[in-house]
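Lab notebook, bench 4. We co-purified these components, and the gel suggests they stay together. Before we commit to crystallization screens, I want a quick structural picture of the whole thing.
Request: model the full complex, all chains together.
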Amino acid sequence: MVDIKALRENPEEFRNALIKRQMPTDLLEEILNLDEERRRLITETNQLRAKRNELSREVAKLKKSDTDASTLIEESKQIGERIKAIENRLSEIDGRVNYLLLSFPNPPHESVPVGKDETENVVIRQWGEPRRFSFEPRAHWDLGPQLGMLDFDRAAKLSGSRFVILRKELAQLERALINFMLDLHTREHGYVEIMPPHLVSRESITATGQLPKFEEELYNTQPDDLFLIPTAEVSLVGMHRNEILFEADLPLKYVAYTPCYRREAGSYGKDVRGMVRVHQFNKVELVWFAHPEKSYEALEELTSHAEEVLKRLKLPYRVVELCTGDLGFAAAKTYDIEVWLPSYNDYKEISSCSNTEDFQARRGNIRYRARDNSLRHPHTLNGSGLAVGRTLIAIMENYQTEDGKIEIPDVLRPYMNGLEVIG
RNA sequence: GGAGAGGUGGCCGAGCGGCCUAAGGCGCUUGCCUGCUAAGCAAGUGUGGGAGUUUUUCCCACCGAGGGUUCGAAUCCCUCCCUCUCCGCCA
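Here is the predicted assembly.
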């Protein structure tokens, strides 16, 4: 959530933020108009309340001295009615302003390249070389079923399209990847491992920014109105909702493995084959609560932690900085990590690392007590470390052999009982 | 699902119609003292909002959430949410 005070004092900056994001600016104008009316009405009710409080004190005095106070009481009553009338209008405005503020995207950081869409993202660095195959490489959606280890048909029977069943060594490899990633981040990168709930309340998921604007992307459960998390970021950030942290404890670094559930409502034509885009996938997620002055260093560090997974798996990747037009709603700055996929003959997103600055902390009322005793919002960062399903795809396709088998990357063999090849 | 208890500042906890401008303690900050640390002593320390000033300030709201009663609510009434204990069911 943006800071209404900052918005009021510097509307031009926020208007530019919307323009850079290729978004209409009408919600900004509406907020400014309502905010002005709101402040006028607040001033008015404050004055009326002050008057009423004064009358009340006098009534108390008169009653003590057994004097008639009916005139004052009558006046006080009338003031009460006026207050109520204004309050009705005020709560209407509050509701609307709040909704608009919750719908306002995070302004991009000044370092973010301005651009209209994903074609203007900037490649920052590249690691490894795509493998040159001496044969025609198979796509994972051919290779998996051939091995009898990916089953899209039965998954569709169970749940519909965009679901997948893993079998045998491929299921085991998915589990190995999860453990490998968790071990790396907890043992070498200093993260605290969390196993959080996958069902969260409306309030929790509003804090991270998925609500109120993107409800159609979420699975909602009734009658409890709980949401299946689209990413563990929701649970990890939400953990500290309405809390006051200690400055000395920052940064807090969490890692969690969870499944992620996404309706993929707007993506009917995209990635229709295979398990690149499915409604349920596993992910290991990294989240930081960082000191505001150190959050951009933190973003570099977090991104490097995600990259380290790919380096150890020896999977070629590149890091892309998203331009303003492609930036997610809650992010001030984002690096996407893209892994090489032979089936796409291109790099494909496998991690997205973002600094949301105080955007989520504000929405979630997460603060910390600074050394001078003041309260401030920490910055929150999140990144996949990594999307497990897509990592599995990358291994299948990049490590495949001519006879349709899959070599197991060295670092995963201890997690596979020493197995070297699948198939 | 049933019965009971409870939700008050960063934390613990008192208050149960106007003297609450929320006691007291812990913690935290600063200073003093001090081989270091700890202890001790002193002072300070709630949040949010509005108006003004940009140094000093004034006003309003907030005691789980929302309604209600009242001239006036942390305090009384209603609804809801959450936590804990016990019972039932259950992996």
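The mean pLDDT of chain A is 93. Worth comparing against the SEC data before the next meeting. The two ends of chain A are 50 Å apart (CA to CA).
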